[in-house]
Protein: Glycosyl hydrolase
Organism: Salmonella enterica I
Amino acid sequence: MANWPNPFIEQRADPFILRDGSDYYFIASVPEYDRLEIRRANSLEGLRAADPVVVWRKPESGPMSQLIWAPEMHRINGKWYIYFAATHTQALDKLGMFQHRMFALECADTDPLTGKWTEKGQIKTPFDTFALDATTFYHQGKQWYLWAQKAPDIAGNSNIYLAELENPWTIKGEPVRLSKPEYDWGVSGFLG
């Protein structure tokens, strides 16, 4: 196996790669945290040289107007979706946490680089707290959503939750908590 360059693509955090047919897609956080851009290539290696295409820019104000983080792109039932975290402010809340929530974009066009992306809004969860790092997968006939979220009943870091999706931007039923930070490596920096 050949050695891969590290970093694979400069100045990109939270990278995500999707293979769809013979195409590879790359999306990640950009240093300015102000937009979502996608790269496409016909090989994994080709993503490094592929030109990024901006498919969405943050609005000037509102819940998705600051610190666009950790995007993932998925294809669900023939449509494209981007899940990402965003916030309305760069200020920390009273617990010293960022105020990110999770959001979704949808593109019904065949080509996600030239298609129209529509804002589907915030992914609503039972409590309105810091949330990020969402992903989705299909298993046993159901579409699932997995994410990290700060629970109101714990100090510090976030739990990991799983829920079935009613549609790609709406949780169905009550989420299940899969884990909570309880070991030193999971609470580092959050306990006194």
Observations:
- Residues 13-129+164-175 form a domain with the Tachylectin-2; Chain A fold (CATH 2.115.10.20).
- The two ends are 45 Å apart (CA to CA).
- The chain has a mean pLDDT of 93.
- The helical segments are 184-187.
